[in-house]
Amino acid sequence: MSEESNPAASLVERELVLTRLIDAPREKVYQAWTDSELLKQWFTPRPYTVPAAELDVRPGGSNVITMRAPDGTEFPNRGIYLEVVENERLVFTDAYVSAWEPSAKPFMTGVITFEEEEDGKTRYTAKALHWTVEDREAHEKMGFHEGWGKATDQLEELLKTGKVSE
Predict the structure, then answer these.
(1) Is 126 a member of any domain?
(2) What is this structure's pTM?
(3) Per the domain annotation, does 151 fall within a domain?
(4) What's the CATH number where 71 sits?
(5) What is the band of 12 on the pLDDT scale with cuts at 50, 70, 90?
(6) φ and ψ at residue 19, rounded to 5 degrees
(7) Phi and psi for 35 in degrees, rounded to 5?
(8) Are 63 and 79 in contact (CB under 8 A)?
(9) 3 pLDDT exceeds 60?
């Protein structure tokens, strides 16, 4: 069945998903995603680091998150926010680099949701939606589940420190 005749199946074939129950209120989890100083502390799996993060968290606002490899190589990632619902949902993409300027090669759209659960916990879901099945496969081979999983572990560690206020 072609992508045109079954778009839902096509989307499933192009997405990667990580879901976790985090022992923190969703306001704190959201804050860790939207405060650049907090994001730098957890966003990329160690031993990689984030030396710089510029976040203009609003629909159409741009972001630049620079990741640094252990050998010092830096990887700036540019994008924009498509949707921002405080404490509930962030949607961002690298299809644009700033002010609706298209990127040379879009790779993915990220959809992060923060759902309130019992006992002050958060159902955290991170989806990476790719333009092609090949992009999804490449992201999976790069270590999406392991990398995003480790980053989420680091997010949880940060939330336990008390550095994130409501």
Answers:
(1) yes
(2) 0.91
(3) yes
(4) 3.30.530.20
(5) confident
(6) -125, 140
(7) -105, 115
(8) yes
(9) no
Number of domains in the chain: 1
Q: Considering the domain boundaries, does residue 4 fall inside one?
A: no
Instruction: Quote the tokens at residue 88.
Output: 């509930």
For residue 97, the enclosing domain spans 19-157
- Residue 107: partners with Cβ closer than 8 Å, 6 or more residues away: 94, 130, 131, 135, 139
Q: Residue 154 has which token pair?
A: 């680091």
Does residue 34 lie within any of the structural domains? yes
The two structure tokens encoding residue 115: 């759902």
